[in-house]
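User: Can you model how FE2/S2 (inorganic) cluster sits in this protein?
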Amino acid sequence: MPKKFEIIHKRVLNPEMSSISVYAPWIAAKAKPGQFIILRSNEEAERIPLTISSHDDGLITVIFQKAGAGTMELDLLNEGDCLADMAGPLGKPTPVEGYGRVAVLGGGLGCAIALPVARGLHEAGNQVDLIAGFRNEERVILQDEMKAACTDLHTCTDDGSFGYHGFVTNKLEELIKSGVKFNQIFAIGPLPMMKFATLMAKKYDIPCMISMCPLMIDGTGMCGCCRVTVGGETKFACVDGPDFDGYLVDFDEAIERNRTYQAFETERREEEAE
Ligand code: FES
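Assistant: Here's the modeled complex, given as structure tokens:
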């Protein structure tokens, strides 16, 4: 019998990203596409929000990028080790029913979030074009899983070393210009990518849902850390999201706030390296 929060599988996906499958059957039983968990690798560690990539056989699988001190600490754990805790499933599930043809755009780590959303949409009977973007071939992940989760997979790289040469928004526009009629776009990835995906969606008058993944502390709407301005109102990504109507999100404000946190992360990494 596995222990509570035991890491059952760990997989290195590329030089920056790994996935872990953690024993948490009570969370796995309730999880839906688009929802996330918050975990701590040890009692002193920071809280890390991660989208649930899959939830089978009592295991919650999450994918993380070794970007900051917290995720680097998490990466030190191996199969057989236990997390200190995990809370979830958190956030509202992504609505997946009744769109018809949809495009799901994933950028970098966002592909790990786009995967369960695409799978949910596909299982609900929608025709799903999954457009997954990476910097280069070395960064490409989850090809088999993504192929199985959609109708058509379009993998793109910024430098053309694998698949389509260009950004996910270039591929999206190419498909639209070729006559494909999308009823809904989902964009999941770095803030600038979601901003440009929304601008593209507006250009062709297609609704666009985006997924916010700001820093989070409590995950219950109490601390205000994950606030985002949507339609002129303050919303909390942890309880009101993570999905929002891209047309209404103040991306410039979110990008500015994110920059502040990045400066803290860099400072923290440098302190740890000393
Ligand atoms: Fe605290 Fe959302 S994480 S309000």
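A couple of observations from the model: The chain has a mean pLDDT of 90. The longest strand covers residues 48-56.
User: Helpful, thanks.
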